[in-house]
Amino acid sequence: MKLFSGLKLLAVGALFAVGSAQAAEPTRIKFAFNFALDGSAGPYLLALERGYFKEQGLDVTIDPSSGSGDAVTRVASGTYQMASADFSTLVEFASRQPAVTPKVVFVMYERAPQAIISLSSAGIKKPADLAGKTVGGGNADGPARLFPALMRIADVDPSKITYKQISPQLRDSMLLTGQVDAVIGNDYTSWFNLKGRGAKRENVDILEYADFGLDVYSNSIIASQALLRDKPEAVRKFIAAALKGWRDAIADPAAATKAVAARNRLIDPVLETERLQFLIDHKVRTPNVQKHGIGYVDADRMKKNIATITESFELPAAPPVSLVYDPQFAPGGKSAVQ
C-alpha cells in the first residue's frame, strides 16, 4: 500500500472513491487485451478475479487479441466496448478512420517500450554503433515504423545499416544465433524472450528509444465513441476497478500472474511475474508518474508524439489530440492536460 500511495495514484486515489454501484442491471463491457494473456494482463485479470468490476456495477469480460491493431478494430467495430492498445496504433487508426476511432481514456505505460536489443559482444552502446551492423525487425509493428524517426533524432545515416525483415516469432532466436547483430522490438517482449532462452542480463544491451529522444506514450486503456457518449460513468468505473487491480499487482505481482495462469496455463509463472515487475518499474512507476500520478498526460508531449507518429507512419493527416484522447479521466481531469 505504501508503494501504491507513493505513486500518487490518481492524485490521492480520487477514482477509487467511487462507491459500489447499486444498478439493478450491470453494464456489460467487453474488454480486448492488446495481445495474448501474459504477465502484463495480470492487473486486469486480478481486478476481475477479486470482483472489483462487479463492485462498480459492471459485467466485464476480458479476452486476448492478436495485437493492438486487432484490439482497436474490435472497439471501433462495436463488438468490444473497451481495450488496451498501443498509443501509436490508435493514432494511426484515428488518422485513417476518424469517424469511428476509439479514444484513449487512460495512459498506463508512461514510458515507451520500443528498444534496440543486442548481445553485449556486438558493442552496440548507442544508436551510432549500428553503422555497419545488421538489424532485424518487423515490417509493420510500432518499433520498426518508429525506427527511422529514432535514426533521424540520433543523426544516424540509415543507409549504413543493413535492415533485415524478420517475423516476431524468429526475431529473438536469430539474435541469439548470430544471424543479426541487433533486433528492434518492445523491451519487455524481447528481453524476456531472450531470458526464457537462457540469456543473462549482463550479456544483453537494451537501448530504449526514450533514452535517445523518442519517448511516445504507449499502452493505454481505450473506449468506443458510443460508450463515451452514452455511458461515460461506466468508463470511469472501469478505470477505477482496473486501477485497483494495478494497485494490488504492484503490491503483489505474483498474485496477478496467478490470475493470468488461471486463464492461460501455458505461461511460465516465474518469468511472467518478472515481466510484470519490469513493466511496473520501467513503464508505470516512472518519475513523471511519481510526481503527477498514474495516468497523467502532458498535452505538449502528446502533440509531439502525434506529429512523430504521423511522419513515421506516413499518415494522411495528424489527428488532433481531441480525436484520440479524452482527458476527463486523467488525474485532475481536464486541467491535467490544458
Strand content: 5-15%
The CATH class assignment of the largest domain is Alpha Beta
Shape: globular
CATH topology group of the largest domain: D-Maltodextrin-Binding Protein, domain 2
CATH superfamily of the largest domain, called what? Periplasmic binding protein-like II
List descriptors.
338 residues, single chain, 5-stranded mixed sheet, D-Maltodextrin-Binding Protein, domain 2, disordered C terminus, alpha/beta
What does this structure look like?
It contains 16 helices and ten strands. The model is unreliable at 1-21 and 334-338 (pLDDT under 50). The chain is 43% helix and 14% strand. The relative contact order is 0.20. The longest helix has 20 residues, at 232-251. The chain has 338 residues and is α/β, with parallel strands linked by helices. The strands form two sheets. A five-stranded mixed sheet has the order 2-1-3-10-4, sandwiched between helices. It has a five-stranded mixed sheet with strand order 7-6-8-5-9. It is globular. The chain has two domains: 2-111 and 217-337, D-Maltodextrin-Binding Protein, domain 2; 114-212, Periplasmic binding protein-like II (D-Maltodextrin-Binding Protein, domain 2), CATH 3.40.190. It has helices at residues 2-6, 10-13, 42-49, 52-55, 68-77, 87-96, 142-153, 168-176, 187-196, 225-230, 232-251, 253-261, 269-284, 287-292, 299-312, 321-324; strands at residues 27-32, 58-63, 82-85, 103-107, 114-119, 134-137, 162-165, 182-186, 204-208, 220-223.
